[in-house]
């Protein structure tokens, strides 16, 4: 079954403290940029960490991948494109693409988060609030 993609694009500027002695963004900051993308996605599509917490759940990351192609430098702007990957599993899967100001692909990656209830039990089925969100989004 083909489902629609939900995406969000967020523009960010490289800050001085994100660069290394070579003058490029330190590789560890790309994972932070992915989080910036997730937060922007949540604000745009109504699935923020606060919404998840209010429903009584947390969503720790259990897997993250990141591939680097080009560097970013201090002062440059870039776009984080975050795409929600629909799954029947009780997971949040996001794919990321980071494009520099020349629209060149700088980095791509993915994160997978699972749902834990208030007693830190792993949810094997979509929590009710999450399934309602998916239904509302046509997923």
From TrEMBL:
CDD domains: 4HBT. Signal peptide: none annotated. Keywords: Hydrolase. Its EC number is 3.1.2.-. InterPro entries: 4-hydroxybenzoyl-CoA_TE, HB-CoA_thioesterase_AS, HotDog_dom_sf, YbgC/YbaW. One of its GO terms (molecular function) is hydrolase activity. Gene3D superfamilies: Hotdog Thioesterase (3.10.129.10). PANTHER family: 4-HYDROXYBENZOYL-COA THIOESTERASE FAMILY MEMBER (PTHR31793), NOVEL THIOESTERASE SUPERFAMILY DOMAIN AND SAPOSIN A-TYPE DOMAIN CONTAINING PROTEIN (0610012H03RIK) (PTHR31793:SF27). Belongs to the 4-hydroxybenzoyl-CoA thioesterase family. This is Acyl-CoA thioesterase. The lineage of its organism: Bacteria, Pseudomonadati, Bacteroidota, Flavobacteriia, Flavobacteriales.
């Amino acid at each position: 079954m083909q489902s629609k993609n939900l995406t969000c694009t967020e523009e960010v500027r490289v800050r001085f403290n994100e660069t290394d002695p070579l003058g490029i963004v330190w590789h560890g900051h790309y994972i932070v940029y992915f989080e910036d993308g997730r937060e922007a996605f949540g604000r745009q599509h109504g699935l923020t960490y606060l919404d998840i917490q209010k429903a009584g759940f947390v969503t720790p990351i259990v897997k993250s991948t990141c591939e680097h192609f080009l560097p970013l430098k201090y002062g440059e702007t870039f776009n984080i494109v975050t795409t929600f990957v629909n799954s029947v599993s009780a997971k949040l899967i996001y794919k990321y693409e980071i494009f520099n100001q020349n629209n060149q692909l700088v980095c791509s990656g993915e994160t997978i988060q699972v749902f834990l209830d208030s007693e830190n039990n792993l949810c094997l089925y979509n929590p009710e609030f999450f399934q309602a969100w998916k239904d509302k989004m046509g997923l």
